[in-house]
């Protein structure tokens, strides 16, 4: 412990583990600690099922109908990964023309613009050009481009077109869905990046109490644990380790639902993502539904896990997600949680303490990826280069 590190990381949530792996691959000396005895932090996978009952203070044991407890790996905060970065597409000629335009669009080739200036034309005008209706616009903006509000409509269209293009290319690559989900739940991902960090010399310590983050002249110089001090130049941590340096900007309600059936009208899919656009339910925020099953080794045979989430807008959060819960009926067991949305009060450039954001209501990783890239840029002063990361990884693992 009494050593000096380039970077100390506190917490083993996915954001922290990915940054730990990246920094180790970049040649930094990394120490990674967590007060918990398990990986994942706020985004952990809970197993066995009995532990989920205890965590949510559900009286009694799970019924025998739910199978063996160790067959369950329940993600507290599920996130699908865009396969190249489930829903059927509308069979409308106008929408098909729009998708053909998107597929052919190349921001570096003006011949593909068809009278649209990608740096100046608002996305609202692009929709109007193709005469798309409001329902199609809601679907496109929130389920394909993955925007959480409609602010993008009045922004230059280039980014939105590229987002839709990513969705289409991902769908083309994997057939029925553009999304991926790891077997045994998301808890496998933090451990994977932890192993990557270890291969490059990173040191991991679980079940390690954090007594103090030592700051001198406004800048972090180390972390104290069990009477010992590890010195560092930079610190990465989740909000729970620095409660005085974060602020609450909202809340998220999540309901984990155990089902004995697939969701209706999904062709009996063993996994799916449903996004209910805000306009469709007279809200400011979308409602998200993520469903996975025994096919992903996260539930007993014949069982399904559906998780509903949204940003809280009223004093009755459970009522806000009723439209989504109605899609899931009958529900065998529910686990309800309401968590604060926390963000850092500053950029960390002076203190060199870089704090991640808590996970939002979305069921995809786009906002988490944005947070990771933002922290990386603030720490290093440069944009994250994924191709460079792959090259360095291949030095160890060889080509994919």
From TrEMBL:
Keywords in alphabetical order: Acetylation, Cytoplasm, Golgi apparatus, GTPase activation, Membrane, Phosphoprotein
Q: Which domain of life is it from?
A: Eukaryota
Which subcellular locations apply to this protein?
A: Cytoplasm; Golgi apparatus, trans-Golgi network; Membrane
From the Swiss-Prot or TrEMBL record, what is one GO molecular function term?
GTPase activator activity
Please provide, in alphabetical order, the Gene Ontology terms of the cellular component aspect for this entry: Golgi apparatus; membrane
What membrane topology does the annotation report for this chain?
Answer: Peripheral membrane protein
Which Pfam families does this chain map to? GDI
Tell me how this protein assembles: Interacts with RHOH. Interacts with the GDP-bound inactive forms of RAB3A, RAB3B, RAB3C, RAB5A, RAB5B, RAB5C, RAB8A, RAB8B, RAB10, RAB12, RAB35, and RAB43; binds RAB3D to a lesser extent. Interacts with DZIP1; this interaction negatively regulates the interaction of GDI2 with GDP-bound RAB8A.
Q: Which function does this protein serve?
A: Regulates the GDP/GTP exchange reaction of most RAB proteins by inhibiting the dissociation of GDP from them, and the subsequent binding of GTP.
What protein family is recorded?
Answer: Belongs to the Rab GDI family.
What's the protein here called?
A: Rab GDP dissociation inhibitor
| Annotated source species | Enhydra lutris kenyoni
